[in-house]
Structure formats: C-alpha cells, structure tokens
Design goal:
32% strand, 15% helix, 4-stranded antiparallel β-sheet, Immunoglobulin-like, 3 helices, 2 domains, alpha+beta, 7 strands
C-alpha cells in the first residue's frame, strides 16, 4: 500500500527556500515516472560525477543531451525503422522506444562531456564552486578595525 505525502506545509514554513520544497515535491513524483532507460550515478572524485545510461540500440545521432537551468535532459528519439516490421520476435526484451530522462543538477554543477561505449552513454559532470563562495579563513588580529579608528568603506 502506497500513501502520498503532502508537502504543502513546506511551502508555508520554508521562507525563501521554496525551490528546495519544490525539489522535494518533484522527487516524490519522480517515483511514478518510467524507469527506462536504467541509469547509474557515480561519484568519481570529490567534485566529479558520472551518469551512465543503458541505451542499447540507439545511435549517437538519435541522442540529444541538453543542460539548462540546473536541469540535464537526455532525449533518445527512435526513428521509424522499417526492417523491424519484417522481423518476427519470439521475445523482445530490448526496448525500442523513444525516451526523455531529466536530472536535477546541484548549483555550480556543469556537464564536462559525454561518450558512448559498449551500449552505455556516459555523461561526466563537475562541480566548480566560484572563489567568492568558497569558505575562507578569517585571521584574528587582536583588535577590530573599528577599534583601531579605521573606517570601513561600504560603497
């Protein structure tokens, strides 16, 4: 038995974090979407990731990878193949259909590249945090600049 969870209280209590509440809500609905094609998400190094998708039967020109606004969209479009109409399958376990798979990327995560190997599509990602957002050490000098009579220009 599956119960649905109401995330609307998060929208009321997360002031300024409505994006986070939306992600949680979207993730809860993602369980209902198709599991095709199957994929893995790997952590290669501290800030390097790889998404690997099983795309057997797709040619490189039938695939499209697009990254925009923290969303990675991988689309596979199967062209109508007339040779399949003549074939008679006793069992067809290899899916022969188009797909669209979306991945929500974290802040400052960008796509580095993609390649196909042995029927697997590999998409490499890297997180690059800007210098202004990286943590920095603050030295303790004994007295503040204000105590020393120096004025801090805030313009």
């Amino acid at each position: 038995m599956r119960t649905t969870t109401d995330f609307s209280p998060l929208y009321r209590s997360f002031i300024g974090f409505d994006h986070l509440a939306g992600l949680i809500d979207k993730a809860s609905r993602a369980d209902k979407q198709s599991s095709y094609p199957p994929y893995n998400v790997e952590l290669l190094a501290e800030d390097q990731y790889r998404i690997t998708m099983a795309i057997a039967g797709f040619a490189e020109q039938e695939l499209d990878i697009e990254s925009k606004q923290n969303t990675l969209v991988v689309t596979g479009t199967k062209t109508g193949n007339t040779s399949n109409a003549e074939r008679k399958f006793l069992h067809q376990g290899i899916a022969d259909r188009s797909f669209e798979r979306k991945f929500q990327l974290g802040d400052h995560v960008k796509v580095i590249g993609a390649f196909i190997e042995h029927g697997l599509l590999h998409i490499d990602l890297e997180r690059e945090i800007p210098e202004a957002l990286k943590p920095r050490k603050i030295a303790i000098n004994g007295k503040s600049l204000l105590q020393q009579g120096q004025v801090i220009d805030k313009s």
